[in-house]
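Risk register update: the risk that structure generation would not scale has been downgraded. Supporting records follow, first protein first.
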Amino acid sequence: MDKTERNQLKLEENVLNNSDLILNVEKPVSSVPWKDSLKQILACCIAHSLVIQAGINMSFSAILLPQLDEKKSSIHISKSEASWIASIVAIALPLGSFIIGPLMDKFGRKKLCICTTIPFAVSWIMHASAKNVWHLYLARIIAGFSGGLTTVALVYVSEVTHPNYRTMLLSLNSVFVSFGILFTCVLGLWFRWRVMAIINCFCVLITLVMLWFIPESPQWEIVFKNDSTAAAKSLKWLYSDQKIFENQYERLLDTTSRKRRRSSIKGTDEESTRLLKIKKELSIYKEPIVYKPFCILLIIFVFQQLSCGYVIIFYAVDLFREIGGHFEKGLDEFVALVLLGSIRFIMAIISALISKRVGRRPLFFISGLGMCLTSLVAGVYMYFTVMPPDELAKLSIQKDKTDNIALYCVLGYVCFSSLGYLVIPWTLIGELLPVKVRGVLGGVMISIAYILMFFTVKIFPFVLDLIKIQCVFYVMSLVNVCGVIFIFFFLPETLGKTFNDIEGYFKREG
């Protein structure tokens, strides 16, 4: 290739890059009325029904372990075996999240949603028929692996939704996880764990049947299969209005054709060798539209786990007792779990409903500042409760042994965390990461998040042995302040933005 041809290719690439801005001006995102979005909502709810099982996995050990500890239990376990039954799910989760990326890119989002139900059903059958603790170990490992596979639901929803509804529909992921937690806690009030396993297996089969009737992701059809006919068929199912369908189909084709032309321009001067091909594939991860959102997501997940939102849910009863909660009038550990599950479920619904109008950043700010305030108040209150009565008298403070102020602060902390910190980071995976790496990096990111969750939950009891409980709440308050500052400076708003708009933001930042 001579110098003249090289200059011509560079000129063409510059025109293509500038066409992004032209496209956004000439073809703004069309609005979609509620009545024309019902099919999208239905498809997203069916896909999200997979993550109900992930929520059930998180809370099932809270029901299983106390029943195994009973004298009449058919399987008897030691304290060490109980800890493995509870934590082994978190260990297996990253494996499923890591391998789902390449699989969903190769075989499709819908097919992998369907396949994910199979190991879930197997795990519940093994639970119901378990004869010894090793059967439970294997069942929990399969359940955790299956929970990691549910990453495919997030990616599917991000690719079938209109930009105006994507934020809200992605937020349903946490709603369905919270429903799974609440569902398990409620069933635990009346049923034995084997019966619950059978009920959960039937729920998985219902999800399997429903998944057959939703369309494949049009983004996957056009990007990975280059099948515009199949993409049009999927979009036609999602958009019953002809004008909206044509607008979205044209936008999808335009965006994809521009990316392919850039790819062909960049690859014109390369030799078709295996080494250069691998180098070209790896070079994708050096682009600012890939590594910048990945780094932002990674730091947000670190703040999420250090905020101890999940720790409070895992250690709810022990934490209530540690801070001086008084269990009266029928409030036991099972009722406490139902209470926390109800709070998280309600707040997740509120977050999903208002996210269509409020956006990610304001919800993050409200959530982070609310968590900061409630944890600070809880820490200060607990500091005064451990002070000697004569010192409190000097400060004109009377100590009431029957109040539950710290407990109410913890419940408030759960409310605010469920509004943003426990909800939004998971949905951002489907929004910030580009389509071409969303499957792989989405799986990697969720694997990292689950590993962080495992370590924070695992070390929390040891942290309480090293420092006082009020110091833990001080640290939580500081972490939330730092998280809000980071989000203010680095997280872009995604409400109503197309994937092209989001990529354009990181290109400009790069």
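Supporting record for the second protein:
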Amino acid sequence: MFHHHTCSLANISIDKDALLSLKSHISSDPNNILARNWSSSSPVCSWIGITCSSRHNRVTVLDISSMQLHGTIPPHLGNLSFLVSLNISNNTFHGDLPEELAHLQRLKSIDVKSNNLTGAIPSFLSLLPNLRFVYLSMNQFSGEIPSFISNITKLEVLRIQNNFLKGEIPREIGDLPFLTILDLQSNQLSGAIPPSIFNITTMEIIALTRNNLTGELPITICGHLPNLKGLYLSKNNLGGIIPPNLEKCRKLQVLSLSDNEFIGTVPRELANLTALTGLAIAALHLEGEIPVELSNLKNLQNFVLAQNQFSGSVPPTIFNMSALRVLVLDRNKLSGTLPSDLGRGMPNLEELYCGGNNLTGFISDSISNSSRLRALDLVGNSFTGTIPGSLGNLEYLEILDFGGNNFVSDSTLSFLTSFTKCRNLRALCW
């Protein structure tokens, strides 16, 4: 028993030395958290940000996130051999992550997001057999995503968004059998999306927005993604059609495809994605009519269809989608009228954009039933009649644009006197 106690004291002193080395590498600690608290005169396991195991009395968690710390990570941190979770996120650490962290064989989670770390994606990650969660986002990592990522066989979450990564997404990522979140947004990745990624049955989030990806989506994209909840592919150079097979991702909540080169029509099959809360298919090359079936998406809150070549009238049932908060239809070739009871079926609507189309008719007073409306843009259509005075009852209204229509001009003055309740109004054009 005496021997064991001596042993554990010796081991905790190793941890203590490693942490004091980290403290010495911190050049700025504006809140004096570590300066005050990490003291040789108090037990390591009582220090702020430190958790120890009761069994071995060793440091298992190091969490110094969001402390406004500035400095570098010393190699001595690799001596915390019982560490399970390392979190230094939301500080301003710079330099490389030392390869000595490969000694942290028990590590399950590493979170270094929101720092100023540089260099390549650390190769030591592939030497950590228990690693499940890797958060490297919002740093200055550069180079390519290494294929050795596939060696982290237990990996569940990989987030590397907002860095300076180039090259192609390695096909080997598709070999990670437990991956649930792949977030590579806001880098400079190019080439096609490896089809193997769409075969990881555990996948819940695929986020590749704001890269330079090209190619087409597989026709069978959702054949092996029963758990997918979010597919974020906006702001790339992806082409081809939107695969109707997307309907098989039955748990999909957000489908974001805007700002790409997709062509063709909107697949009616998307109406089968009943869990969908967000659908963004703007700034593409889509044509034809807006499928009336999409109004069956009862949970849809954000519906963005702007900057396409959609024609025909807007299906009236879309204006009965009661969960809608944002409806964006501007800059298409839509014609026809808006419903005479506009606003009655959308009590949660906050933003309605219909500008730059060929819409006609009048705007009903019932628009005020969308009492949460913050933005109403009808610019550049052929609406007639008077501007509804009921708009003056919309207390949250911030943006109102009627320009380029045929509203009766003498109605403007009476309208202007009616919106004294619109205290948030900051843009008004007619």
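The two ends are 85 Å apart (CA to CA). On this basis the risk owner (M.S.) recommends closing the item.
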